[in-house]
Write a structure and sequence with these properties.
Length: 498
């Protein structure tokens, strides 16, 4: 496997592979276990396809009891486990291990309950994001977080990565719309955190699990908040002669006290790619485009459209268009949500980054990214959640050209370091995974990282759940003060370090 260094494969576990497969088949009979080399090829990467690794075995459980039994067996026998949803992760969070079980949750795909009185839905983790909205829209409700991959990404993966979307500026990320989960720990215990109620007593364990990237447990059920659709929603397309002016407009809109339902920005390469792909009616003679959606009562929306228009003109906007129907509004968004595949039409490969910055730093960061683009000799298309400062630069490269992938990785690392330098963070919604793992020291010191790993040890004493992700150095729990060393004998002496 090329890419980041992963934990060294356990030769003892690999030597027991056939016994492990037989045991897993007893737990998940029928088509519940995949162990053929060719059949497992479909699972060798997630959405970060630059990095690939075939798993030792793939298990597709159908019941919570099976998930519990698989995890208990792996815990008892010292076998690593990598949970996987739809495999749309863009940070390598579901990258398999050659000596690990890939626990694929795709068969958990049912909407279990819709409770309109309490405005929530209970679903299994393999239900797609969009399917939740489809299940409740007949009563005028919807699920607010809407990643661009919402037609394919699953709610379990959304919980693992704390996913966002174009409408998360006003309505929050997954964590703000999550009420409860059922979680199976590495030793097979089934626990419930939260529920249909708004807040839970005690420690915020639900907040810890959200965004934990499969390092703490496997989610088998999710309770989410559903919202009534707004009375009115209209979207504006506002074009600017430069990305810096568009960035200043974003900052001005927020500082004026206006919180749009969504506010997205695209630069010229992304605009042209999306327009050629979707034909959404984007202006092609601008350097940057803002999509601003205002929602609420009709009178409020009308007032806010006028106010945003004034701020846009103040910042040099050269074109402005307001949707006149819901179909046109959705067409505006269709171009934005198709931007990633659209960019794939103009470059053999692209590397999608994910970092977050303070909004006021947007002009500076865009300027410095342009300078980095010239330095590395690689083009970049910018598509991002401008309202909350979550950037998604798409670095264009050709994997068939020698060293271009390496240059793209270095370019991406410099972008993320820049985000931290200006007061931002390494990720907004894609997670750390393996992509940003070795950059964690740019944001956290050794003490910070040690405390985070102590938390993992409380859930996973042997470090079996998704090892090699998030933490740049894998410590034994004993090193972090989690375990007692008796007469010089350390528990789990074979736990790999790298």
């Amino acid at each position: 496997m090329s890419g980041p260094i992963m934990p060294e494969a356990d030769a003892d576990v690999l030597g027991r592979r056939q016994d492990i497969v037989r045991a897993l088949r007893q737990i998940c009979p029928g088509e519940g276990v995949i162990d053929g080399a060719e059949e497992m090829r479909a699972y060798e990467s997630d959405g970060l396809t630059a990095y690939r690794q075939r798993p030792m075995v793939v298990v597709l459980p159908e019941t919570v009891r099976q998930v519990s039994a698989v995890l208990a067996y792996c815990h008892e026998n010292g076998i690593k486990v990598v949970p996987r949803g739809a495999g749309t992760s863009l940070s390598g969070g579901a990258l398999p291990l050659e000596d690990g079980v890939l626990l694929a949750m795709g068969k958990f795909n049912r909407v279990l309950e819709v409770d309109f009185d309490n405005r929530c839905a209970v679903v299994q983790p393999g239900v797609t994001n969009l399917a939740i909205t489809e299940a409740v829209k007949h009563r005028g409700f919807y699920y607010a977080p809407d990643p661009s991959s919402q037609i394919a990404c699953t709610i379990g993966g959304n919980v693992a990565e704390n996913s966002g979307g174009v409408h998360c500026l006003k309505y929050g990320l997954t964590t703000n719309n999550l009420l409860g989960v059922e979680l199976v720990t590495i030793d097979g215990e089934v626990v419930r955190l939260g529920g249909k109620h708004l807040d839970s007593e005690g420690y915020d364990l639900l907040g810890i699990v959200t965004g934990s990237e499969g390092l703490l447990g496997v989610v088998t059920e999710v309770t989410v908040r559903i919202l009534p659709a707004p009375e009115t929603a209209r979207a504006m397309l506002v074009g600017f002669p430069s990305s810096e002016e568009a960035g200043r407009c974003v900052a001005d809109i927020i500082s004026d006290g206006i919180i749009p339902g969504g506010m997205e920005m695209m630069d010229k390469p992304a605009i042209h790619a999306a327009e050629e792909f979707v034909h959404a009616g984007y202006p092609l003679d601008v350097e940057a485009l803002l999509i601003v959606e205002l929602d609420g009562p009709e009178a409020e929306v009308h007032h806010l459209i006028e106010r945003v228009g004034e701020l846009a003109r103040k910042n040099g906007a050269t074109t402005s268009r307001v949707s006149t129907s819901d179909e046109e509004r959705l067409a505006f968004w269709a171009g934005r949500k198709a931007a990633f595949p659209a960019v794939g039409r103009i470059s053999p490969d692209y590397y999608c980054m994910d970092g977050t910055i303070p909004r006021h730093s947007l002009p500076e960061v865009l300027r410095r990214m342009s300078e980095l683009s010239e330095q590395y000799g690689l083009r970049v298309a910018n598509v991002f959640h401008a309202g909350d400062g979550n950037l998604h630069p798409l670095i264009l490269y050709d994997a068939n050209e020698p060293d271009e992938l390496h240059k793209a990785e270095s370019f991406g690392a410099d972008i993320l370091k820049l985000c931290v330098e200006v007061g931002g963070v390494l990720t907004g919604e894609h997670g750390v995974g393996v992509e940003k793992r070795d950059l964690m020291p740019a944001m956290f010191d050794e003490t910070d990282l040690a405390h985070q790993q102590r938390l993992k040890c409380a859930f996973d004493d042997q470090g079996l759940l998704n090892p090699g992700k998030v933490f740049p150095t894998l410590h034994r729990c004993a090193e972090l003060g989690r375990m007692h060393i008796h007469r010089g004998q350390m528990p789990f002496p074979d736990l790999p370090r790298f």
